[in-house]
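Chain and backbone:
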Amino acid sequence: MPLIAPSVLTADFLRLGEACKMLNDSEADWFHLDVMDGRFVPNISFGMSIIKQIRTATKKFCDVHLMILEPEKYAEEFAAAGADQLTVHIEACPHLHRNVQQIKSLGMKAGVALNPHTPVFLLKDILHELDTVLLMSVNPGFGAQKFIPHTLEKIKELRGMIDERKLDVRIEIDGGVTLQNAKSIVDAGADVLVAGNTVFASANPIQTIQQLKQL
């Protein structure tokens, strides 16, 4: 049974409190919080102040995905804002091991994200240090994109790497997850499904989350 992590970025921010209540009342496991800086990706989202407010509205796991350059400059602030897990991009971190150690030293779980073009074998020497690997199944920066089918092969390869070494590392998939393709994603070896538009554009978001959860 996968963990479901609805992406709050696709919620109606004029009704953010209602969106948080809906997720609290649903079977969602995590709140997925996307932070974009307009430099690493061509969009700007929200930062620590919004995360701090969301943290006051939920006891569920807050999964913060940093699509930013130089994440080490802000890790302490995200920890103080209430992040349970901080995920940084391998492409943005020339000293990735140092980034992961910093995140863990601040009491958060550590995740590393890979863009669609980045091969999973690059994680070989850091995989044992991680709690989660997030595979982008769309190009980061915008919602409502179509799932890139090759991601399924990357999930299978990563699952093999994790299982062969008997590691406790979750595989998280972000981008284009729908009710139609979610089963194939889970069957390939994914543990966590990030769902934005699929949940928040649904006529019945709570039911949609339940359907994803029951895969």
In short: Residues 33 and 210 are 20 Å apart (CA to CA).
